[in-house]
Amino acid sequence: MPGFETMGKMLILMGLFVLVVGLIMTFAPRLRIPLLGRLPGDIRIEREGFSFYFPIVTCILLSIVLTLLLNVVARLLGK
Question: Which DSSP helix (H) or strand (E) runs through 44?
Answer without folding.
Answer: strand 43-47
